[in-house]
Write a structure and sequence with these properties.
Helix content: 40-55%
Structural class: alpha/beta
Order of helices and strands: HHHEHEHHEHHEHHHEH
Oligomer: single chain
Shape: globular
Largest sheet: 5 strands, parallel
Low-confidence stretches: none
Radius of gyration: 20 Å
Length: 260
């Protein structure tokens, strides 16, 4: 391993955060520690911009939806946490719906999602969304082929109505390799604080990898005719989180000079 021990890098490693980060890595890894410290510094700057973005949303009574989709264990939840950890909790919500109730199953498919839409001055983050019907449900047999076709025929028109009604919507898809997903599943199962994340759907994700890929391609093709997904490569969690935040800040036309 080759590390450039410049004065700047030595100062980073000699800081409290640098020493803690270095000494908690086994074996010692100077390169990863420096990369992590650079990530933390960049993240902090971006989080300041996220506060500005939220202030702009509040002051202008904007309504914003940010949809997160992607493979199981792709890092959707981690990215959302870094986006929201410094902004005002009174003006955002994270929506991660469980499976529909019998009553919800009898309703129009999109109805239970509409109930979660933002009020004025609010951002709503969907940790999985109505796009469950584009991938998870058909792959796992949770919907009929007719229900899938109906969804695909309606989804672009549904989102067009959302936008025309004054709500901004942005869609992010977090992508990882099959090998990385298997690695993360193994880590989750080995961690008693994370085992709750594994579901029966997750357990079958590796075996159904190719099926997910087929439905993912169909979803992307359909979304090209409406609001396309921004694909974020997620094999490196820290890089993916930065890329997600940068995309959001670039996409939403907030006032960068707003006072906070």
């Amino acid at each position: 391993m080759s590390v450039n021990f410049t004065e700047e890098n030595i100062n980073k490693l000699n800081s409290t955060k640098g020493l803690i980060s270095l000494l908690t890595r086994k074996p010692l890894n100077y390169e990863k520690t420096l990369r992590y410290l650079d990530y933390e510094k960049r993240l902090k700057k971006l989080q300041v911009e996220l506060v500005k973005l939220q202030t702009w949303v509040i002051q202008n009574n904007e309504r914003v939806i940010i949809v997160f989709e992607g493979r199981d264990a792709a890092g959707k939840g981690g990215a959302i946490r870094r986006i929201t950890e410094r902004i005002n909790p009174r003006n955002f919500r994270i929506v991660a719906l469980s499976k529909p109730t019998s009553e919800e199953k009898s309703q129009w498919y999109f109805q239970r999602y509409i109930k979660q839409f933002p009020q004025e001055g609010e951002i709503v983050f969907f940790d999985r969304s109505w796009y469950n019907r584009a991938m998870v449900e058909p792959v796992n047999g949770f919907c009929t082929p007719q229900e899938y076709d109906t969804f695909m025929n309606q989804v672009n028109e549904f989102e067009r109505m959302i936008v025309e009604s004054g709500t901004k919507i942005y869609k992010i898809y977090m992508s990882i390799s099959k090998r990385e997903q298997a690695k993360r599943f193994k880590e989750i199962k080995a961690d008693p604080l994370k085992r709750w994340k594994m579901t029966t759907v997750d357990e079958s994700a590796q075996a159904l990898w190719d099926d997910y890929t087929d439905y993912k391609k169909k979803m992307f093709e359909k979304s090209k005719l409406g609001i396309p997904f921004k694909i974020i490569r997620g094999n490196r969690k820290t890089a993916a989180r930065i890329a997600v935040i940068e995309h959001i800040l670039k996409s939403i036309p907030y006032d960068k000079n707003i006072e906070i």
